[in-house]
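User: I'm writing a tutorial on reading structure tokens. Could you give me a worked example: one chain, its sequence, then its tokens, then a sentence or two explaining what the tokens reveal?
Assistant: Sure. Here is the example chain.
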Amino acid sequence: MSTGTGADHRKEPVVVTAVTTISAPMEAVWRVLVAFDQYARWHPVLSFDARPEQVVVGAEVPGRVSDGAGGEQDVTMRIVDVAAPRRLVWEGGSLDAVLGRHSFTLGQLLDGSTELTDSEEFFGATAAELVPALGRLGEEYARYGVALRARAEGRWSWSGGR
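And here are its predicted structure tokens:
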């Protein structure tokens, strides 16, 4: 992780990453990941007002982030990369403050399970201020991975899927 100094902090991102192993095939995990209209059912803090068919590069996806204490913030994510069923990237925010580029990378493991790498790069004028919170952010991203795992594994059975 590099935070840069001076003007460089706009060029080098602050990064948080969590890796989760999910006992389901990559395609099953992908279906959960892109079912934006279902996020409120499994994601601890994020919900979207979009459908899976809107998962295309350039799509603007409105949503909400909840802090769990009753506070909500409206957000808009723009999809910047889709390589089904291996990679999904969206970004939101502004370089004037903080721009987050969130990526999900899926890999099929030899045992048939999936490795999910959930990573976010933060750019912008105030991105360096996130450095003290990276440990907590990493824990939150791991919690999101656990929630996605529960959803994907609950929708999949090794006897043929659901």
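What the tokens reveal: Confidence is low (pLDDT under 50) at residues 1-10, 158-162. The first strand starts at residue 14 and ends at 22.
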